[in-house]
Amino acid sequence: MISRRKLITTGLSATAGATGLVVAKNLAQHYGLIPPDSGGLYGPGETLTYAAQRILTSHSMAREFPRSELSQPPFSNGEPPKDEAYRRLQAGAFADWRLSIDGMVARPSTFSLAELKSYPTHSHITHLACEEGWSYIAEWTGVPLSRVLDRVGVLPQAKYVVYFSFEPGWWDSIDMADALHPQTLIAHGMNGTALPANFGGPLRMRVPRQLGYKNVKYIARLTLTDDLKRFGKGLGSASPEAGYAWYAGI
Amino acid sequence: MSATAAIPTARATTILARHSALIRITHWLTTLAFLALLLTGIEILISHPRFYWGEAGNSLSHPLFKIPIPASRASVPTGYGYVLPDQNGWSRYLHFQSAWLLVLTGLLYTISIWFSGHLRRDLLPATADLSWRSFSSTLANHLRLKRPSEAEAWSYNLLQRLTYLCVIFLLCPLVIWTGLAMSPAIASVFPAAVSILGGQQSARTIHFFVSVFLTLFVFVHVIMISLAGFRNRMRAMITGRTAAPPKEDT
């Protein structure tokens, strides 16, 4: 038997709960805790993971290892692009490789590989783990993405860096927390040599606090944006379009 | 909550209260989460059915052991001439969503059994039972697949108590810890949580073994339920009530 009192209390707590959820969602939106693939069946889990990890990782640094921990040899997943354009660039030691940056920046620019290599570099020996379960440790050398972004002048409203591979259909994005993180590199070197083609040479995005697939190879273009809905199917990267989570910190 | 509160009934058998609503709800939410975690865990495992010890490991490194099954990735040397379909995308989404369900349900359960007295009354062994003699006699009865005595239908024997405590306070925390230790973002916040385990690949290997133990527990649990009277035990965990056994059984 449901009493009137019970009905009123249940109604009140349901309203309070619903209001609480709306307030929580708006707060989360405000602090950038909602991932672009938050809709759909797995949205709740994805949002909880991204929000929890964003709060926890605001000042964290990926673990760095001594040289003795380098994987010998490292494991390269997949092969470099087979098309004529890539081979021609490779034959010319990537002298004609260009990285263009556009979108919400003060000075849209294009950088050659030589220009990027002339900037002060940063190196770290870090773990790269694939979502499949395997991993390797390598030394990565490159220009911190934040330095490159400083040069083009990021507009304050930008929230994400979208990056495109030379390989068609392969693109991804990271939020500004990862883009401005000191260990996030546009890598052009690995284990003391120029970045080998099968590891993403000449340029690879290296985001050491996320899994392998966020570390897109053959980077050719960056775009800054405040809204990922404008790219592809609006899910933030090619990964969710193929069924994989946008955020890969886990 | 009280095990002795009789509910009047017209039938010959007496219907008695057995499990509280909170225990029943958390039991079935945990069941749901566990089955989803097991299924998706197997799917994820298939993409790289090799295990390593230490920080890093891949198809070029020496495995600790391999599971002799085909893989869902062509890059894994399995000895099979074919590759299984890739199911990792939704499996990973569902795995983490179910992990959230398990963690939140587990917290609710642990806090509530602490305050309700269920932990102290029904799970922590009585001091008198903590003797080798008591343990070996319970174990002997168990191994002989002896039907539980009347008293045991209302309370848990020493072996049950120790098993439940081990699952709740050892295996579940360990499977969550080793799961989180595989996350590059979590590793950046709590590096010691990874190094204590011996590295990220060690965490993955331990995660696998703890999952095997949890699966074994579920198998044995279901077998014991069947031996103790499947219908009546299921009824107790679904409706919260159970039929009192006829007097001559005692």
Give helix % range of chain B: 55-70%
Instruction: Spell out the CATH superfamily of chain A.
Output: Oxidoreductase, molybdopterin-binding domain
Largest interface: A-B, 41 and 39 residues
Residue share in β-strands of chain A: 15-25%
Total count of helical runs of at least 4 residues of chain B: 9
Question: Cα-atom Rg of chain A, whole angstroms?
Answer: 21 Å
> Structural class from helices and strands of chain B?
mainly alpha
- CATH topology label of chain A: Sulfite Oxidase, Chain A, domain 2
Order of helices and strands of chain B: EEHEEHHHHHHHHE
User: Based on the structure given, which CATH architecture of chain A is correct?
Assistant: Alpha-Beta Complex
SSE class of chain A: alpha+beta
- Which parts of chain B are unreliable, with pLDDT below 50 for 5 consecutive residues or more? 1-11
Task: Estimate the mean pLDDT confidence of chain B.
Answer: 89
- Classify the helix fraction of chain A into a percent range: 25-40%
Note the overall shape of chain A.
elongated
The overall number of domains of chain A is 1
Mean pLDDT across the residues of chain A is 94
Tell me the quaternary state.
Answer: heterodimer
Strand order of the largest sheet of chain B: 1-2-5
